[in-house]
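Continuing the series of single-chain predictions for the mutant panel. This is the parent chain; the variants come on the following pages.
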Amino acid sequence: MIVQVLLGALLILAAVFVIALGRTALKRHQVLPSLEGIALGAVTNFFDTLGIGSFAPTTAWIRLRKLTPDGNIPAVLNAGHALPTVAEALIFITLVKVDPWLLGACIASAIVGAVVGAPIIVRLPLRAVQAVVGVALVVAAAAFVAKNLHLMPGGGEALSLPPQLFAIAVAGYFVFGALMMCGIGLFAPSLILLPLLGMNPTASFPIMMGACAFLMPVSGFQFLRSDRIDLRLVIALALGGIPAVLLAAFVVKSMPLEALRWGVVVVVLYAAATLIWSAARGTKAQVAATTV
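Parent structure:
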């Protein structure tokens, strides 16, 4: 019953988000997506479905190609990947069995964290966004390295958790939801926390994808009201991402990803360095201006 309610609510939320996105894009005359953005959405969401995560590689490419100003990145990530992540969640919640109470509680907690975090992010100064996203990319790169070196927790066989560990998981998802608004992807910390608590790593997929699928459109409504968003890029990521999710989930299903992770590490660390350097340079410039 809980699963059916979640799936129904997710479909309604996605429909409302599509309407809000379309209306806002028409109002701001930002409807036509770029082919590069569509390709970016396809590639990142394809590998997102296989567990790589989409935020870090998307941020790295945006920075490398200068597709949008740095201040737009958190909004573009959350709004642009929202609909592909809804597709992922619908698939994995349906196919992978997990405790429905844990699933619902983690989703609700992540949504609350996102609602708390989104208004903070849209008001942050540019250099603060650059610094936060830069640090987030370093953390993501560390997670990729840990995965490749087999340092990530192996997990157990559990599909549910006892009360104490249940509470830890729910609290963790509140934090993950808030950090998502800064551009810090939820997949990597989820794939660390839940297996550490003894869960089957496969059971992490419907929980983390369900949480993202709900919190990203919810936060997306707030980001759509902000000026710090590129709606053309948001639409492009969605258009490329949804068919790529279906391809990865139903056709490819799995593939060797270790070499890809090493490549992502290099690109992500480059983007992180440029973001942190931009933030530091902005801070120094402001200090110099105030001392003249």
